[in-house]
Amino acid sequence: MPLSSCRMSWVRLAAARWVAMACILALASGILAGPGGAAERDPLPSWNDGAAKAAIIAFVARVTTEGGADFVPTDQRIATFDNDGTLWAEQPGYVQAAFLMDRLKDMAPQHPEWRTEQPYKAALEGDQKAVAAGGMRAIDSLVMATHAGMTSEEFAEAVRSWITTARHPRFDRPYTDLAYQPMIELVTYLKDQRFKVYIVSGGGVEFMRPWTEAIYGIPPEQVVGSSIKLRYELTGDSPALRRLPEIDFIDDGPGKPVGIAKAIGRRPIFAAGNSDGDLQMLQWTTLAPGPRFALLVHHTDAEREWAYDRNSAVGKLDKALDEAPGRGWLVVNMKADWKTVFPFQR
């Protein structure tokens, strides 16, 4: 063999050995993994390793593995999430209630009659007992006064303006910072696995739609919520939808399966909630043939967030907590299962 050929063979051998060593080092350090050479990464890094995290990942693997007994086609991979208390904080009160109160105060100078007329007087004075004594009629009056009368575009702009400036009373941060980091990761994980993810909330649909995509990556057309009636108007060549002072639909409790059927048209295979207001959505999701998964966020962390369940005025979790074990629903213990709660706590 010519000397030049020997040198070439030696060079090739050395190169092959370096490639082999590089592959071994890459595998050892987790750069390469699996037969496809795909990067291994933790899809839920803010979740502690344990039964809850393992159950979620195992379910997703089951329904996304082609050829498996529980494989679910992508068009049927529907996931629904409650918002308040499931995707972001709902204490010490619902965020939309804070928006309502701030609007009421801003509008008060144009309504001097509110200084003596109930329930506006009580609300402006912070007399929650008096407002509560007025029942749903009082609540409806406050909602209509602050949420109706304008066009949908005007209301959306009011929401966007408020959500960028309002701050949470305990943490003194924008309300959007109070989204749960582990749940944001869960939404992203499901989307990466070709689930279509919806918000199904008792909150106002037009209150949520201006900001859900920026916070959760869930676009407005995938948000289902409570609504008031709209009326189409045409002024010259300017069309508008006018918000009327009348309830159209309440997307809470037994209304959630109805809202899912009307707005989505498919039964979810994955649902997440945190309160008895989500009970019927979890039943609707899981009490059907095929692989299905339901999750309840249990608020157990008084230090990083709040600890509440059965006796809470906001986000009461009683019947659903009792039903979960028999149904096989996953109850996520916030204190034990989450490494962090909010993004700013990392």
Coarse shape: globular
Write the CATH fold name of the largest domain.
Rossmann fold
Number of strands: 8
Can you tell me the number of structural domains? 2
Instruction: Report the radius of gyration as a whole number of Å.
Output: 26 Å
Helical proportion?
40-55%
| SSE sequence, one letter per element | HHEHHHHHHEHHEEHEHEEHEH
Instruction: Please report which band the strand proportion falls in: under 5%, 5-15%, 15-25%, 25-35%, 35-45% or over 45%.
Output: 15-25%
Query: If helices are DSSP runs of H or I spanning 4 or more residues, what is the number of helices?
Result: 14
- N-to-C span: 63 Å
Main sheet characteristics: 8 strands, mixed
InterPro entries: HAD-like_SerB, HAD-like_sf, HAD_sf
Pfam family, one: HAD
Keywords: Plasmid, Signal
Organism: Azospirillum baldaniorum
Layout of helices and strands, plus pairs?
Elements: H1 3-28, H2 51-64, E1 78-81, H3 95-107, H4 120-124, H5 128-133, H6 135-147, H7 152-163, H8 181-192, E2 196-204, H9 205-208, H10 212-216, E3 223-235, E4 238-249, H11 255-263, E5 270-273, H12 279-286, E6 293-300, E7 307-308, H13 319-327, E8 330-333, H14 334-337
Parallel strand pairs: 1-2, 1-5, 2-3, 5-6, 6-8
Antiparallel strand pairs: 3-4, 6-7
Helix pairs in contact: 3-6
Protein name: NapD-like protein
Keywords: Plasmid, Signal
InterPro entries: HAD-like_SerB, HAD-like_sf, HAD_sf
Would you write up a description of this structure?
The chain is an alpha/beta fold and 346 residues long. The protein folds into two domains: 1-40, no CATH class; 51-92 and 178-345, Rossmann fold (3-Layer(aba) Sandwich), CATH 3.40.50.1000. The chain contains 14 helices and eight strands. Strands 1, 2, 3, 4, 5, 6, 7 and 8 form an eight-stranded mixed sheet that branches. Helix 3 packs across helix 6 (135-147). It is globular and about 65 Å long. The protein starts with a helix and ends in a 9-residue tail after the last helix.
